[in-house]
Description:
228 residues, mainly alpha, two-stranded antiparallel sheet, 70% helix, globular, disordered C terminus
Amino acid sequence: MGFARAWLxxxxxxxxxxxxxxxxSMGVMTLFIAVGxxxxxxxxxxxxxxxxxxLSLMSFLLVAAPLKDGQISTAYFSGQGIFTxxxxxxxxxxLYAFLKRHNIxxxxxxxxxxxxxxxxxxLIPVLAIILTLHPLNLFxxxxxxxIIPEAIMSLVKPLVAASDTLPAILLSVLVCQVxxxxxxxxxxxxxxxxxxxxxxxxSVNQAAMAAAPLSRTSMSRASGITIC
Length: 228
């Protein structure tokens, strides 16, 4: 009992230092998601994974990290930006693949070093992404008073809330078991569909715990894990 009280007091006194691993992992999960999805999709299109990942990261920061008072907002770096990260990763990589497939690029003579040539080749995709996403973000902000991640979250909010209910969890488990019965990897299918919603809820749970370590009343029910 004495150890528990001592640990509680220690954690409260050094809360900021103890929260650093969370802030730089779950707190910025969307950055990893944006890069990872783009890199995986790039392999499907036989593109350079690193280039696609960096394009996706740039795209996400362009729409989800507005500059306010000289500082970048990180509000959508955690669970609230998951759906935006998924969409911009797919968009930027598919646009990159489209331009590459149609040879819309800057070509340099063969004498130019490969590293320099790749730097120029990526200019067109960068410009295409900036000239499409940035005006769209500005238009949505002007018309709706919210940026793209906020608009996306407002659209999927009912689905996120619905995924945090007992019927949704039971249905997920049922579908998972039916797929297993049919010889299909049920866990892989169900979690692939539901994980973005569960991760959004999990992020809310973690934020609530970080804000009030001794309170559990504001936590959502879905933990983000379904046993199939």
